[in-house]
Amino acid sequence: MTTPFALDGAQHAWCTELRTLTARHLRPLAARGEPGRLNRPLVRVLGELGLLSVLLPATGTVRAMDLCLLRESLARECTDAETALALQGLGAWPVARYGTPEQRSRWLPEVVAGRAVTAFALTEPGAGSDAAALALRAEPDAHGWRLTGEKCWISNAPEADLCTVFARTGPAPGARGVTAFLVPGDRPGLGGSRLDMLGPHPVGTLTFDAVPVGPGDGGGEVGGGFGVAMRTLDLFRPSVGAFAVGMARAALAAAVAHAGERRAFGGPLKDLQAVSHQLAEMVTRTEAAALLVYAAAAAYDAGEPGTAGRSAMAKLFATETAQFVVDAAVQIHGACALRHGHLLEHLYREVRAPRIYEGATEVQRTVIARELYR
């Protein structure tokens, strides 16, 4: 069993460099963006800085540990930048892993450069946690298929340039009979609308009115789409935990600074046992979450068995920990943290969604329990 006791010097240096780049180049672009809208200048600079190539390296093999350290570092400084980067990887990784040479040469250089924006279109109004229940139909015609139905809660929709779409191509129930398709955003019959969400995250719907897709649009084998979706999520699930750890670290740093400066009852807040013990709990849980994330990433990179359970534990514990840490940091700050524009007000809205997307907390517990009996 792989146990990363600590990050090495090169990894610490890289994380410091990433945080500096994020604060200097990405945070100002994020601040100029419109909340809830796709920020294309931000995505382009992610490409120019070479950060998207970490998600989609020329070798074709992405290391889960690199992905986790990248997401954690960006999240500590700018959650908008982190999210924009992660969504590029989530939508394009199926292209890199399962696409044809023609599909990879067409799309990956554009995605890595930040010129093309991607979406991962799995969830539907009636198929969220139960992804195998999806109902988007792929009906055969003389040239391939026609997609009819709706996707919902899709990041970067409806503005994405390329959507990895999962549809039912056969009558088989459940996970069988699902196929992945790579659908350009300008394909006839493809529409959608924005959704106003709690966090400043570009999310929307996609509607499919007999959208044509041909044999050249397949993302992997016909009927193998559910496996494409699950293997994509297996890679990205630990890094959702890393995103949460980054937010927890940012909230913890803010709480430590405030408790050391704010005076009440004749001294700084940190001298009050209730506050100091809360800070101790916050930092302990955050460090535990980080180690669980790193362990899951290291196990994935080493090809060890049981990575699905490890990934689920990492996402479960890290996202629940981040919720606790951010909430505690708000409590320590008091009313000032509730003011619009405050870092903790932003994190309080941002931290809620990761406990739901890419497998809700309850789903992760189910995965973990199942792994115990394999």
Structure explained in plain terms:
- The protein is an alpha+beta fold and 374 residues long.
- It folds into three domains: 9-112, Orthogonal Bundle (Butyryl-Coa Dehydrogenase, subunit A, domain 1); 118-223, Beta Barrel (Butyryl-CoA Dehydrogenase, subunit A, domain 2), CATH 2.40.110; 227-372, Butyryl-CoA Dehydrogenase, subunit A, domain 3 (Up-down Bundle), CATH 1.20.140.
- The protein contains eleven helices and nine strands.
- Strands 2-3-7-6 form a four-stranded antiparallel sheet, with no helix packed on it. It has a three-stranded mixed sheet with strand order 1-4-5.
- A hairpin with a 7-residue loop joins strand 6 and strand 7.
- Helix 7 runs parallel beside helix 9 (307-333) and helix 8 (273-301) packs antiparallel against helix 9.
- The longest helix has 37 residues, at 225-261.
- The radius of gyration is 21 Å and the shape is globular.
Task: Record the SSE blueprint.
Blueprint: H1 9-32, H2 40-48, H3 52-55, H4 64-77, H5 79-98, H6 101-112, E1 118-121, E2 137-141, E3 144-155, E4 162-168, E5 178-184, E6 190-195, E7 203-213, H7 225-261, E8 263-264, E9 267-268, H8 273-301, H9 307-333, H10 343-350, H11 361-372
Parallel strand pairs: 1-4
Antiparallel strand pairs: 2-3, 3-7, 4-5, 6-7, 8-9
Helix pairs in contact: 1-2, 1-4, 4-5, 4-7, 5-6, 5-7, 7-8, 7-9, 8-9, 9-10, 9-11
Domain Acyl-CoA dehydrogenase/oxidase N-terminal: 11-114
Domain Acyl-CoA dehydrogenase/oxidase C-terminal: 223-372
Domain Acyl-CoA oxidase/dehydrogenase middle: 119-210
